[in-house]
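Fig. S4 source data, part A: sequence.
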Amino acid sequence: MENALLIGLSRQMALSHQMDVVANNMANLNTPGYKSESLKFEEFIMPVAEFQDMGTPTKSVSYVLDARVVRNFVEGPLNATGNPLDVAISGSGWFAIQTPAGERYTRDGHFTLNNEGNLVTAEGHQVLGDGGPINFGPEEADFVVAGDGTVSSSDGEKGKLKIVNFDDLRQLQKEGGNLYSSTAAGQTMENPRVAQGYVENSNVVAVSEMARMIEVTRSYISTARSIERLADLKKQAVNDLADLRA
């Protein structure tokens, strides 16, 4: 019975983590470039624990483990904003961003200008071009981003957005601020496809996440009820044993 309680508890812990993942997806439903996440489970078989019902063979005791978070890197829909500093990548690729911790990567192309005229993310990190950060003078206007990422203004060409790709997207590690890091260097794309005046929306599907949330809630409640029944049986067994001894 103790094993059964522990199995139920392991499932509750995994479901609680899954609910956190679903809730985070819902919270980022409108975050540009956000990639949805899901939880993968694994079975853990205890090497020594086992149980046996009356008249049945001995069975191993297994627990559920929330093994890892998996990200869906499918491209989200592009949303027209009309802002000339907004840029969306069509297809594969990641914007290279300079942060105090080093180079990072994002699909969030909602850019702006800081007080020094640098092209930056919403968090203030510099957007990198092929020659470093992209800077505009105080009198420049008519910002244009060509389809290959070349940036120009009334003062002429300012550089080309540094857009990189990775052989294995599983190398990307999520960080705060909608950024990713990687231990492997990204390969600069020679011919990326970008769209000015657009941002890539989150690829979270609200209806699917709501269905998952309902499913997780029901499973958690069902498991809690099973644990409660097992606890009641244990209590009853203790009481019956006390009566026999009396």
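Fig. S4 source data, part B ends here. Confidence is low (pLDDT under 50) at residues 49-55.
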